[in-house]
Design a protein that fits this description.
The complex is a heterodimer of chains A (about 400) and B (about 260). Chain A is an all-alpha fold. Chain A has helices at about 15-40, 55-70, 70-80, 90-110, 115-120, 130-150, 160-185, 195-225, 230-260, 265-275, 275-300, 305-330, 360-380, 390-400; strands spanning about 5, 340-345, 385. Chain B is globular, with a radius of gyration of 23 Å. The chains are: A mainly alpha (about 400), B alpha+beta (about 260). At the A-B interface, helix 5, helix 6 and strand 2 of A face strand 2, helix 4, helix 5 and strand 6 of B.
């Protein structure tokens, strides 16, 4: 097997620092949004006692789900022994860490008492899925960190497969935990199903790979390094399979719900009468997030790199729309305490809850995305994460 | 070790000595516990150092057939007792905490209307307690579900988990209407406490029940559901009652008649 040379990105050009500064600006906006929300309380957000988890959670959960998915490329290399993926693995691992960091920061900065983070780290209720997730997230940092170390340091290279396998099993458990944050909720019709855990896993595969592909192509294009079609074709076919699987899970989930009379009205809300939620479901999640990317990736368009990039961007946008529908949509539908009765109260019982996110929430969420990109941009400068050359000839040698 | 063994060997146990020790123990226990027991008997309260007891299960009966349309005496009384701003006075009604609210139900087929107050149902198996990451949501031994103001991090997972929409987040800095015995705080989640401060004082009732009784509706009864002689237990034996979302099998501390 031919060896691959990994090299840091030089990162001294004006373009690099402009990129770094541009992303840094969004990190700053995110931090200012946090200070504003923390100072005034959640009263300055669009969240209320009806929509208790808003746009920050949409971004946070998306980033956490995408983080575990971004690790997939590395897992294919070490767990499933595909030599072609080996040079792609270090970027996969650093992206996973960066996305996880971004997601977690948004999550904790949106707490009502984010100043009490230490309490969350010292008081545990082991019946809570949230508590389990605290350990799953910390373990993810540790295991992926060790895995990355085994990839970068020749002295510990022998442990790479073991570390990769551990990280792979951990990431599956982690996304099971993320899906179960919602799956373990008994109160709301659209939650409380074990379906959410595997559905979140397959979604993580798609979102993580879409982000990975975009970062990979951008990194190679902006540094002038050769990136051959062999890598791109392999990864875009994989993305098509993942997106199709997401669509399958979403269809089965809603079909099952539609079969039960008790779920009829909440399903009508999501699929037909929910206004913005319905639009986000059909246009965002289904058409933009699944159908169009599938058409692009499976047709002749998928042979062109720019179209693959468009498909990736659509998968990411569709993923954010999906999180919005999953998190906000389920809360927007009122709790059905008295089935078959209409309800009225001063506490907005029995009415569809509306939600208008404020700029603070948007920028807090975008701040998480920016943190992830900033960490990645910096990491490729200081660590040897990217192969100097990924043209078809180099990649072909790996397979023999 | 050997010394101890020889000592015990040299001290034959006498029946008289044993009897004396048991009598002394019983007397000492009696002297220690009696004031506490007396206090409970007299006032139904308990001293601060004494933990809540699982021998008691506080509960409430809501007779929806007596709950008057348009009356919100229970809501006002709760707001006054616990120091939360009435929603009508709030600048941000959608974000304002509501510990108790009046629900108006209507059957779309028969047009039959039902009125009832809705608040924390003080479940025996509370989903909010299950999901709370820090253990801030907890259930006392006597069945009252509370939020520890010191360890709530404001994650709102309990609000996602509660099937009764009983909980509110404090969205903005609080004004000075706070009551000394009802701690509240921005960024924390709160809900009906069954007026735990009154219960622990030995009032044996809650602000909403007092207000409902004072208004002459008598739709609410509060008491110990474990005590077969309490008024609530007697009424629960006579009246058919339901639990809201009984399908969830949470064993609620609030039972409704006439729904």
């Amino acid at each position: 097997m031919a060896s691959i040379t990994f090299r840091e990105v030089e990162g001294s050009s004006l373009k690099y620092w402009m990129l770094f500064g541009g992303i840094g600006l969004f990190v700053l906006f995110g931090f200012l949004s946090y200070l504003y929300m923390h100072h005034h309380g959640h009263v300055v957000t669009g969240m209320d006692n009806q929509i208790v988890w808003g746009l920050p959670h949409v971004f946070a959960v998306f980033l956490i789900v995408a983080a575990s998915g971004a690790l997939n490329v590395a897992s294919i290399a070490s767990v499933f022994n595909k030599p072609m993926y080996k040079p792609l693995a270090p970027l996969s691992a650093i992206l996973a860490l960066a996305l996880m960091l971004g997601g977690l920061l948004v999550l904790v900065l949106d707490l009502g008492r984010s100043d009490r983070l230490i309490v969350a780290m010292t008081h545990f209720n082991f019946k809570s899925m949230f508590t389990w997730n605290v350990f799953l997230y910390s373990g993810f940092f540790a295991l992926v960190g060790i895995y990355l170390w085994t990839m970068l340091d020749r002295n510990v290279k022998a442990y790479s497969k073991a570390a990769g396998t551990a990280a792979f099993i951990w990431r599956l458990t982690l996304t099971t935990g993320t899906g179960s944050l919602f799956g373990f909720l008994v109160a709301r019709e659209l939650y409380g199903t074990s379906m959410l855990a595997p559905m979140f896993i397959i979604m993580s595969f798609a979102y993580g790979l879409a982000i990975y592909l975009m970062v990979l192509v951008a990194a190679y294009a902006w540094t002038g390094r050769p990136l051959g079609d062999a890598v791109m074709m392999r990864l875009k076919s994989l993305l098509a399979v993942f997106v199709a699987a997401v669509l399958y899970f979403v269809v089965v989930y809603h079909l099952t719900n539609l079969y039960f009379a008790k779920m009829g009205s909440v399903e009508s809300f999501i699929l037909r009468d929910g206004g913005i939620i319905t639009t986000l479901f059909w246009v965002g999640q289904i058409v933009i997030g699944c159908v169009v990317p599938l058409v692009i990736l499976l047709s002749g368009l998928g042979r062109q790199r720019s179209w693959i990039m468009i498909a990736c961007a659509l998968v990411i946008l569709g993923g954010i729309a999906q999180m919005y529908v999953t998190i906000i949509g389920a809360q927007a539908y009122p709790l059905d305490m008295f089935p078959g009765m209409t309800m009225k109260s001063s506490f907005y019982d029995g009415v569809i809850h509306t939600y208008s996110p404020t700029m603070a929430e948007l920028f807090l969420g975008l701040g998480g995305v920016a943190i992830a990109l900033l960490v990645t941009t910096f990491a490729v400068k200081v660590l040897r994460l990217l192969p100097a050359n990924l043209d078809d000839a180099t990649v072909a040698k790996l397979e023999h | 070790m050997n010394d101890m063994k020889s000592m015990s060997d040299n001290t034959p146990s006498s029946p008289e000595r044993r009897r004396f020790i048991s009598a002394a123990t019983v007397t000492a226990a009696g002297v220690t516990l009696a004031p506490g027991v007396m206090l409970i008997d007299v006032a139904h309260g308990r001293p601060e150092e004494q933990a809540a007891s699982s021998a008691v299960r506080w509960g409430m009966l809501v007779d929806a057939t007596k709950c008057a349309s348009g009356c919100d005496e229970c809501v006002s009384a709760c707001s006054t007792e616990n120091g939360w701003t009435p929603v009508a006075e709030s600048a941000h009604p959608k974000q304002a905490p509501q510990w108790i609210r009046k629900l108006e139900l209507q059957d779309p087929l028969t047009q039959a209307e039902t009125n009832l107050p809705m608040m924390c149902q003080h479940c025996e198996e509370p989903p909010c307690v299950d999901v709370c990451p820090t253990g801030a949501s907890f259930k006392r031994a006597d069945g009252i579900v509370l939020v520890n103001r010191h360890t709530c991090i404001g994650c709102r997972y309990c609000m996602m988990a509660c099937p009764y929409k009983a909980r509110s987040l404090v969205h903005e800095p609080l004004n000075d209407t706070q009551k000394p015995d009802v701690p509240r705080g921005i960024g924390c989640v709160e809900s009906c406490t069954f007026c735990v401060q009154k219960v622990d004082r030995g009032d044996g009732t809650t602000a909403c029940v007092e207000a409902c009784t004072a208004s002459g509706h008598n739709a609410l009864v509060f008491g110990d559901m474990n005590d077969p002689e309490s008024e609530i237990s007697k009424r629960l034996r006579e009246l058919p009652t339901k639990q809201v979302r009984a399908d969830l099998n949470l064993n609620l501390g609030v039972r409704y008649h006439g729904i």
